[in-house]
Amino acid sequence: MHHPGNVFVVSAPSGAGKSTLVQRLVSTVPDLVFSISFTTRQPRPGEVDGRDYFYIDDAQFEAMVREGGFVEWVEVYGHRYGTGRDWLNRVLASGQDVLLDIETTGARNLRQAIPDARMIFILPPSAAALEERLRSRGKDSDEQIRIRLEYARHEMELYPAYDFLVLNDDLELAYRRFESIFLAARATRERMAPAAQKILEGF
What we know:
By secondary structure, the protein is α/β, with parallel strands linked by helices. Helices cover 46% and strands 21% of the residues.
């Protein structure tokens, strides 16, 4: 698949600070579009169709699956989420980069569909630090935290499938590491060849 834009995938165990990094990146780096997934779940208060998700029903989702309309899709807690193929191709064709925030299973499927996608995994400083972050949220019971940590370990085991590992031990430093992946990807010869050629022709 040759496309002007790059596809970036970011995954992380819950509590590793991914959302903070992603929100800052998308508001800082120009021409970077955050992927909007299709989902069968109902909108939560304050969520807007076409901004947070594209909300469709089970029958519509099923039809898109049959027609190969998703680059990847997963089922989580009885709801399905998928990345739309047409939507993705449209954004990439416009020359913008797309950032997908997907968990490890979806990321693996996406890699098969788009082999040149750049895969980024955000690492917590340690298991203890992750547990501390989950506890300080004050939202989960001990049992829920134990389940989340068990799942985090399972996700951590999949880090070898990623191209870049960003350690989030210090937020500023982590952000610089994270952003540098996007900036470097835009400076590759493949990406810059048309610009270089144009400059050369001016000599």
